[in-house]
Amino acid sequence: MTAERPRRDWRDTVAEAADLALLGLAVAVVALPLLTLAPAVATASAALHDRSVTGSWPPARTSLARLGRALPAGAAVSAVALAVAALLAADLLALAGGRVPGGGPALAVTAVVVAAVLGYAGLVTVAVGRTGGRGWRAATRQAGRACLRRPGVWAAAAGTCALATVLAALVTPVAVPILGGYTLAALHAVDGRHPAFASEPAEARGVAIRPEAS
């Protein structure tokens, strides 16, 4: 006979919500220099992956070590991501303001493209979290294959990111970092319910799976 899992009550829900809020705030603080955005998100994603696998958060020492290892490559990823985000935002604002011809149809198509890009970025973040916050190149290839193989998961990730973007524009600015923690958790939940990466062999990911030093 197997022991029954303890039932969760409202205190567990509140504790988990507080943990995710603190995670979002921590990412926002670490990402203040902007070029540390990708390493901060990767470290948070790795922590969420650990929690989903082991049921507990990794030690602070482990997360700090992951952040340090993620900084060199993550700075370049941050620069590229910020440049792409700026271009897409400028495009949307130009279409919404009528400065670029195309009207409503062009704005709708651009919004769908932006949501698709956000969904892909979300899956990249999940893939990076599965390898301890490193391996951006392998994660981009892996997420690209996952989008083609499981378009439903891609659509769910895109919807999650699009909803988070809309909410970020509606809530008070101080709550935006908290929303970031919930969004990361939602992306991991999407992958947990409909795994986009679990069926891929380690060789196809381009990242060696080995014990991680704490």
Domains (count): 1
Question: Strand percentage, roughly?
Answer: under 5%
Helix content: over 70%
* SSE order, one letter for each helix or strand: HHHHHHHH
Structure description:
The chain has 214 residues and is mostly helical. The chain has helices spanning 10-30, 37-54, 60-96, 103-129, 136-149, 151-170, 176-193, 202-205. It starts with 9 loop residues before the first helix and ends in a 9-residue tail after the last helix.
Outline of this structure?
By secondary structure, the protein is mainly α. It contains eight helices and no strands. It has helices at about 10-30, 35-55, 60-95, 105-130, 135-150, 150-170, 175-195, 200-205.
Q: Key terms for this structure?
A:
214 residues, mainly alpha, globular
Provide the fold topology.
Blueprint (H helix, E strand, L loop, with lengths): L9 H21 L6 H18 L5 H37 L6 H27 L6 H14 L1 H20 L5 H18 L8 H4 L9
Helix pairs in contact: 1-2, 1-7, 2-3, 2-4, 2-7, 3-4, 4-5, 4-6, 4-7, 5-6, 6-7
